[in-house]
Specification:
This protein has 171 residues and is mainly beta. The protein is built from 2 helices and 16 strands. Strands 3, 4, 6, 7, 9, 10, 12, 14 and 16 form a 9-stranded parallel sheet that branches. Helix 2 links the parallel strand 1 and strand 2. The two termini are 28 Å apart.
């Protein structure tokens, strides 16, 4: 329900529905998140099935929705390096995913004027730098996420119109 509300609040454009499943079932369009993101169009929704995805530097450069099956069952393992995911553009929703084993869980950088990036109901743990980093960006919402065993919780640098609400940070 919260994911639906977050997507509806942003007034996202209805695009294609893309399915990612690391086990590659008949219903899956892709087996990796990066491949789905690279091939998505503006307004597309990428639905990510349960699993642990061994990926890093997933670069979100277009407006889209990335929806996992829940942070307890859909995990992006950054393989110990770099960013698990980097968001470079606005009108993007990331929800229901876990991020682990990376330098930064989610890195939101240089999102200007077209803002409206929302990170909601995600779990970020075992990260050695920032759980969620927001730099040089505008209009970013970080809502109801859980962060544990990370270097820096939510780090905001040279950004404006950032809404951070009801997140839990433990170490």
């Amino acid at each position: 329900f919260v994911v639906f509300c977050a997507v509806m609040m942003l007034g996202s454009v209805e695009g294609a529905r893309i399915v990612v499943d690391d086990s590659g079932g008949d219903w899956a369009d892709y087996t990796t998140i990066a491949e789905a993101v690279d091939n998505a169009g503006a307004g597309d929704t990428i639905r990510i099935f349960d699993g642990t995805y061994q990926e890093n530097n997933i670069n979100v450069t277009g407006s889209m929705n990335l929806l996992g099956n829940g942070s307890s069952s859909t995990t992006i393992d950054g393989k110990g390096t770099a960013n698990a995911m980097r968001v470079w553009t606005g009108t993007t929703v990331v929800s229901g995913l876990s991020f682990t084993n990376a330098k930064n869980g989610i890195n939101i950088s240089n999102v200007q004027s077209s803002g409206n990036v929302t990170i909601v109901n995600c779990s970020v743990y075992d990260i050695y730098d920032s759980g969620i980093f927001v730099g040089w960006s505008e209009e970013v919402n970080v809502i109801q996420n859980e962060l544990d065993d990370i270097g820096d919780g939510i780090w905001v640098n040279r950004s404006s119109d950032i809404f951070i609400w009801n997140n839990t940070i433990t170490n």
